[in-house]
Write a structure and sequence with these properties.
- The chain is an alpha+beta fold.
- Helices cover 50% and strands 18% of the residues.
- A 4-stranded antiparallel sheet has the order 3-4-6-5, covered by helices on one side. Strands 1-2 form a two-stranded antiparallel sheet.
- Helix 5 (76-93) crosses helix 9 (158-176).
- The radius of gyration is 17 Å and the shape is globular.
Length: 200
C-alpha cells in the first residue's frame, strides 16, 4: 500500500471492529453497508486487520464516516473522542513508551504557556509517520499558540483530522501534565493546522 495514502492497521482495527459489531448485532443492515462502503471496505470486515500493515486511508474514511453517522449522530466530537480513546490505549499499553519519557519536561512546558518543549514536538511529529504513510508534520510557535502544521494533506480526510485532534489533546495533556485544548483548521486544501493552548 506504499503507493496510495494509507493508515497503519493499528489505527484502523478498532474502526473495522466497531463496524463489524454493528453489522453482527443487526444495528446496520447489509443493504446499508453496501450502499455506504466499497467492495474493498466490505472485504476488510471479513479480514483480520494486521497492526503492522498499511491500509488505504479512503477505506478508513468511509468506515469512520459510517460510524459517525450511525453511532455519532453526525457530531465530529464523536470522532475526536475515538481519537482520544485510541491515544489512551496506546499510552497505557506502553507501545509508545517514548511519549512518557517527555513527562519530566512538563514543568518547563507549563511555564511556557501554550508552547510545547522541542522534544515533545519532535516526538509528536515523528509519531505521525508510524500512523500515516503520507502527510508531513512540522512544529512552530505562533504566539501565543504552539502549532503543528500538517502539509501534503490533500488526501487526508476530515474524519482523520478530527480523530487526530482528540489524539493530540490526550497526548499533549499527558506529556505536559496540564489540560490542553487543540483547535483543528484546514487552512488550505492540502494543509491542516492544529493550535494548542492550555485549557482555562
Amino acid at each position: 500500500m506504499a503507493s496510495v495514502p494509507s493508515i497503519k492497521g493499528s489505527a484502523l482495527s478498532s474502526v473495522v471492529e466497531d463496524v463489524r459489531a454493528l453489522r453482527d448485532s443487526g444495528r446496520i443492515s447489509a443493504d446499508r453497508l453496501e450502499a455506504s462502503l466499497e467492495a474493498a471496505d466490505l472485504a476488510l470486515l471479513e479480514t483480520k486487520i494486521q497492526p503492522a500493515l498499511w491500509y488505504p486511508i479512503q477505506s478508513y474514511a468511509r468506515l469512520t464516516e459510517l460510524l459517525l453517522e450511525v453511532v455519532g449522530r453526525g457530531d465530529p466530537q464523536y470522532v475526536a473522542d475515538r481519537g482520544e480513546r485510541a491515544a489512551q490505549r496506546l499510552w497505557e499499553s506502553g507501545l509508545y513508551v517514548q511519549l512518557q519519557h517527555g513527562e519530566e519536561k512538563a514543568a518547563k512546558a507549563r511555564r511556557s504557556g501554550g508552547q510545547m518543549t522541542d522534544r515533545d514536538a519532535r516526538v509528536i511529529t515523528t509519531l505521525s509517520g508510524a500512523i500515516f504513510n503520507f502527510t508531513r508534520w512540522t512544529y512552530r510557535v505562533d504566539e501565543p499558540h504552539a502549532v503543528i502544521e500538517v502539509g501534503e494533506a490533500a488526501d487526508w480526510p476530515d474524519v482523520s483530522v478530527w480523530a487526530a485532534r482528540g489524539f493530540l489533546e490526550y497526548v499533549v495533556s499527558r506529556l505536559r501534565r496540564v489540560e490542553t485544548e487543540v483547535a483543528a483548521t484546514r487552512v488550505a486544501p492540502d494543509r491542516v493546522e492544529f493550535r494548542f493552548q492550555v485549557r482555562r
